[in-house]
Amino acid sequence: MGKQGRLRLTVLCENVIADLRGIGEHGLAVYVEAEDGAYLLDTGSGIGILGNSLTFGRDLRSIQKVLLSHGHYDHTGGLKDVLGVTGPIEVYGHPAIFEEKYALEHDGKDVKARFIGIPDRRESLESCGADFRLSSSFREITSGIYLTGEIPRLSFFEVGDRRLAVKKGEVYDVDTVPDDQALVISTEKGLVVVLGCAHAGMVNTLEHVRGSLPGFPIHAVIGGTHWGILPEDAVDASIKAIKEMEIDTIGVCHCTGIGYATKLMGELGKRGFYASVGTVFEV
User: Fold this and answer.
1) Which of 22, 94, 224, 264 gives 277 a disulfide partner, CB atoms 3.0 to 4.6 angstroms apart?
2) What SS3 class is residue 267?
């Protein structure tokens, strides 16, 4: 198994700014600098990716591959802008990223369907240089760097977001977000897992990583957890399960919700932090 001897993660897009030079937005993008090159996980909603990359000195022209955690606008909205900087580049994701994704919102009387999928058509993105490499399997994209592929839903308390739907013809079916996946980087200290939204469940994701790479401890986890839509007892069960994994460092953000993020940091002490815009994590 290959390892990356050097790793630096920079949060370029996120809901919260601690460094006032940055731009906040509802979305996520993480710039990954490994020993063999740079990568980008997600592209935010398209508001801050270009400006924040310049502000924090992370050159998008140097990235070797774009990695998409799933097909929601707040993780893919900046993709066309990124392609304008990178030129032709491989874009990795799950085959379901281009499904017609919606959020069903109740206003008291009616249900309104709000489109939340990738804002641009696949053909448009390909014309801008995107070379899509789609797979549902756990796979190594370069030495020591992996995408989880589709994640089994095994925990009883990670119920998912019942507002999410995928449109098939004129029918809105429940979207279980099968395209949800995470990035895994093997380092000398252990595995570093970077989450997009963890629609499959943070615990399910980490258990899938441990099962796919047995014998390798998880050193750190950074990213969104989608706890914001979960009841408190489900989050409590998630925190209990995560604490039992004895992970060295956890930095949550984006769809976690400030309240639940604070609760987790209270449980973890110095091992926990909030990964706001401009946050740098190094191994």
Assistant:
1) 22
2) helix
Judge whether 198 and 180 are in contact, CB under 8 Å.
Answer: yes
Which 8-state DSSP code applies to residue 145? E
* Cβ neighbours of 57 (radius 10 Å): 8
Does the predicted TM-score (pTM) go above 0.85?
A: yes
What is the CA 91 to chain-centroid distance, rounded? 14
Q: Determine the angle formed by the axes of helices 258-268 and 232-244, rounding to 10 degrees.
A: 30
- The rounded average pLDDT for each run of 10 residues, N- to C-terminus, in the chain (283 residues) is 88 94 97 96 98 98 98 98 98 98 87 95 98 98 97 94 94 96 97 98 98 97 96 96 96 96 96 97 96
- Which is nearest to 267 in space by CA: 227, 215, 212? 227
C-alpha 119/C-alpha 114 separation (Å) is: 12
At 133, list the tokens: 């490499």
Helices 202-212 & 232-244, crossing angle to 10 degrees? 30
Per-residue model confidence (pLDDT) at position 111: 86
Tokens coding 245: 């994994």
pLDDT at position 161 is 92
Residue among 247, 243, 242 at smallest CA distance from 220: 247
Read off the DSSP letter of residue 19.
S
Residue 51 contacts residue 25 (beta carbons within 8 Å): no
d(CA 229, CA 202): 13
Beta bridge partners of 13: 29
